[in-house]
Amino acid sequence: MLIEVTINGILKSFETSPGEILLDLLRREGYKSVKRGCETGECGACSIILDGKLAKSCLLFAPQVSGHEIVTLEGMESFSKLHPIQRAFLDEGAVQCGFCTPGMILAAKTLLEGNPHPMEEEIKEAISGNLCRCTGYIKIIRAIKKAGEILKGNV
Amino acid sequence: MFKEVGRNVPRVDGYALVRGKPVFTDDIDLKDMLFIKFLRSPHPHAIIKSIDTSQAEKMEGVALVLSYENAPRVPHTTAGQGYPEPSPYDTVMFDRKVRFVGDRVACVAATSPEVAEEATKKLSVEYEVLPPVFDPEWAMRDGAPIIHDEKDSQGILDPQHNLVGEVEVKVGSLEKGFKEADVILERRYEVHYAQHTPIEPHIVITWLDENGRLVIRSATQVPFHTRRICANVLGIPIQRIRVVKPRIGGGFGVKQEVYLDYVAGWITLQTGRPAKIELTREEEFISRTRHPIITLLKAGAKRDGTLTALDMRILSNTGAYGSHATTVMYNTGSKVLPLYRCPNVRFQGRVVYTNLPVAGAYRGYGATQGYFATESMLDELAEEIGMDPVELRKEVHIKEGETSPIFQALGEGREGISQVISSCKLPQCIEEGLKLIGWKKKPKEEGRMSRGYGCAIMMQGSGIPAIDMGAALIKMNEDGSFNLLVGATDLGTGSDTILAQIAAEALKVPTKKIIVYSSDTDLTPFDVGAYASSTTYISGGAVLKTAERVLEEIIRIGGEMLNEAEGELIAKDAQVISKRTGRSVTYEEIAKNSLYERDQHQIIGSMSHISSQSPPPFAAHFVELLVDRGTGKVKVERYVACVDCGTPINPKLAEGQVEGSIINGISYALTEQFIFDKNGRMMNASFQDYKIFSAMDIPELKVVLIPSHEPSGPFGAKSVGEVNINGPCPAIANAIWDAIGIRFRETPFTPERILRALTLGGSSGART
Ligand code: FES
Ligand code: FES
Predict the structure, then answer these.
(1) CA distance B143 to B161
(2) What SS3 class is residue B254?
(3) Which is nearest to B202 in space by CA: B192, B217, B214?
(4) Which residue, of A106, A152, B35, B335, has the fewest CB within 10 Å?
């Protein structure tokens, strides 16, 4: 079957089957920032933004997103310019192995778009579905806080 | 005084990582790929009587089924250690016998993961089920089931008693020590199974290159050991293999294991097609684990806080195979006991097989297990002699300029090497930590909550002395930039970045002038890999030496260009300058001169480094927590870690190492555990049921780096990767004691355990 999805602002059509997991489709189509960490919805490595909300692509079938809008990390930078969240992750040391990073950055983006000045607890809540085994989350939280300030123009 | 060292340079691989670029093992697409799935044993101990593969082989898309019937049988160890490995050769690719639930029986390579999976279900296997043994104490007794009775294994001390290895060392006289003691305590401590859970599970992709050589692209911490072990198992020359480590999604020791690469490699060699193994999360949980260890610790002390005797006897459970079995056991003594000034010491270790998941290398590598015992014991002793536990630690810990006879007596899988501690800022770490935590300043009770404070001190090593070797190569380009090639393996730790900083500092250029390429057995020099906290110290040492060699050459050529004697020249800011005239030439001019103009040659250098020392990093941890007496839940409120890792080459990355280890450690202490059914099957192999900390669970964590200068390290650096995972278990146990007066000598400290102890009101594990 054929589905049409808007990915990172571009309308795309893909051949898929009713049983195909969205994560598999995205990776197959080259969106390699979408990572596989568990396939059971528990690690957040496969996070995408679906119609403005954070979603786990391993829990969705590809046909379910037909006609919807998806953002992956590939869609976050304009040509050669990092998004302030990416910049903050880099500068604050929020990246170690980087495997959780795409999901974390998308979680941060989803949060900051609705709430540019989150409290620490709100940040923790926003990334609570995204596991990181390397950083202990400390620097990720700091990076998100800093990105929020930059986006609001306070820095 | 440093320009590049000590600076928070952003990770050299960070730009790609924050953009989600396809830099991980799985991020390449190859044509005609085969996907490999395993059939795993449902029994903890059984002989495979027969295996019928015909149904599976008939399936469309199945390329090959591998089992003991057609796989090469080469005994080896899966531990990615230096050669000859100190772990027993007790593993073959596929065996007739299975030794734990989840052991591999066979695998299927097919055109899609789904077909491969489906085909494994079509394999029909007849087992002769054998009695299993799960209890390590029972495993050693006469009459216990023998797990490794195969004839061709090597290096198992006493297979009849499931005993992989043992060690006993003595220093001074225990008898004398206990006679001098005012107080003697004897306790049993137990630490539990755990899994590293890197967010990227094990993954490997293999293919044949255009010349028919086998390429192994693997999420590994040990590319060079992988090449060597695979060559042996596959029966092909090392020369025919290239191992490439791309970015990898965390390791923590679990990827120091070589046990999937050769399976994929064999499939590729047999079929000529690319092959991939990607473990599921469920499989990852039983890939490799932390050795659970039981420690019997007897300690003697005087009332003034002097330790007179330490008698430490451990029993380590390596599960079904002996990966890292003896070395982890040695480390439980050798990385722990030298921390304490005590003239009379015995360390006795034994490590046994059981029909449980295989243990292996896990950050902390035995020291984590050992410190739970010794650092709990120090608090118990302090209580007994009426001394403040922090004061006791100040008294007993090793100081700068001192040595411990244990360094010499006990190494890693063999005797050790004597060393004097040349850098130790532990006293400052303790003082600073005390201040920051506000030691016992807050009120004890708040409703049903009881507050407690606890501390722990710890050390580790920096590489395995006289064994670990790293090498580097630096070449200069005509624009004055440099390629740095290292075998060292960045598994997310940031080692590529700090090695670049070390090179930049020594070459007198900004770090951005260094282009790093690492961990490719065809292109980079050898390195043992990322383990034993060796990268900064050992590989960093190699980079420093190499950079110094290259700098000499740059200065020599600069001198010729300036017509100046070498003694009259200095290198600074990418220039060679005459001290006498102030005239200078830039690196760019020097490189162009050497490549195109005069005495043409490539400015290049390569050096190797090995150390006779393994200077320990030190840390003092302090925790403030609340125990909910109604639910038994422990809430860690604040955690302070003060760390002496020598010169932090990149403070932010070093802090990140500390933070990551501590949160992992707290999670291990409180929530992570393996739940087995009566067959030894892990019942909770998912993140749903095996709870690692999320952002919601973390306490307020304060990390302070207290620099020292380690004379034998590059720019004064020591290691930082492992040491801090040793603190949370004992520090939290000590704080729980402080809060509710119950001593937990078995990890983890789950609400059920605490509640049970509270209701039983002082028995079982309670105040003694
Ligand atoms: S892969 Fe989807 S949540 Fe883990
Ligand atoms: S940085 Fe490695 S999992 Fe988060």
Answers:
(1) 8
(2) coil
(3) B217
(4) A152
Between helices B495-507 and B540-562, what is the axis angle to 10°? 30
The first and second tokens of residue B63, run together, are 């390329």
Cα A155 from Cα A146, distance rounded (Å): 8
Q: pLDDT tier at B566 (50, 70, 90 boundaries)?
A: confident
pLDDT tens digit sequence for B331-365: 999 999 999 999 999 999 999 999 999 999 999 99
pTM: 0.97
- B639 C-alpha vs ligand 1 centroid, how far in Å? 30
CATH assignment of the domain containing A14: 3.10.20.30
* B629, B483: one domain: no
Domain end residue (candidates: A23, A44, A76):
A76
Which residue's CA is minimally distant from atom 3 of ligand 2? A132
Give the phi and the psi of residue B145 in degrees, each rounded to 5.
-55, 140
H or E element in which residue B445 lies: strand B445-446
Residue B766 pLDDT exceeds 60: no
CB proximity B743 to A under 8 Å: no
| Domain presence at residue B284 | no
CA B339 to chain CA mean position, Å:
20
DSSP state for residue B173 in the 8-state scheme? -
Indicate whether A11 and A72 sit together in one domain: yes
Q: Is A17 on the interface with B (CB under 8 A)?
A: no
B299 and B444 within one domain = yes
On whether both A32 and A96 belong to a single domain, the answer is no
Strands B124-129, B97-98: pairing is unpaired
pLDDT at A77 over 80: no
pLDDT digits (tens, 9 = 90+) for B270-286: 999 999 999 999 999 99
State the pLDDT at residue B767: 41
Q: Is the pLDDT of residue A39 over 50?
A: yes
Q: What span, in angstroms and rounded, lies between the C-alpha atoms of B720 and B517?
A: 22
Tokens of B583: 């005239």
Q: Which amino acid would we find at residue B494?
A: G
User: What is the rounded average pLDDT of the residues B519-547?
Assistant: 96
What is the pLDDT averaged over residues B557-575? 94
B residues 231-250 closer than 8 Å to A (CB): 247-250
B625 in a domain, yes or no?
A: yes
pLDDT tens digits, B82-98: 999 999 999 999 999 99
**Distance from residue B120's CA to the centre of ligand 1 (Å):** 24
How does DSSP classify residue B593? Answer: I
B537 domain residue, yes or no: yes
Please report the pLDDT score of residue B768 as a whole number.
37
| Residue B431 pLDDT level (bands cut at 50, 70, 90) | very high
Could you say which of A45, A73, A141 has the minimum Cβ distance to residue B19?
A73
**Rg (alpha carbons) of chain B, rounded to whole number:** 27
Domain that holds residue A71: 2-76
Residues, chain B: 768
CA dist B649 and B400 (Å) reads 21
When the pLDDT of each residue in chain B is averaged and rounded to a whole number, the result is 97
CATH number at residue A118: 1.10.150.120
Question: Is any Cβ of chain B less than 8 angstroms from the Cβ of A59?
Answer: no
Give domain status of residue B655, yes or no: yes
Count of domains for chain A: 2
Residue B362, token pair as written in the block? 């896990």
Average pLDDT value for residue range B703-710: 97
Asked whether the beta carbons of B543 and B486 are under 8 A apart, the reply is yes
Query: Which of residues B577, B610, B643 is at a domain's end?
Result: B610
Asked if B308 and B184 count as a contact pair (C-beta separation under 8 A), the reply is no
Cα-Cα end-to-end distance for chain B: 54
Distance, in Å, from the CA atom of B605 to the CA atom of B459, rounded to the nearest integer, reads: 35
A69 and A27, same domain (yes or no): yes
Same-domain pairing of B478 and B457: no
pLDDT of amino acid A80: 72
**pLDDT given for residue B445 in this prediction:** 86
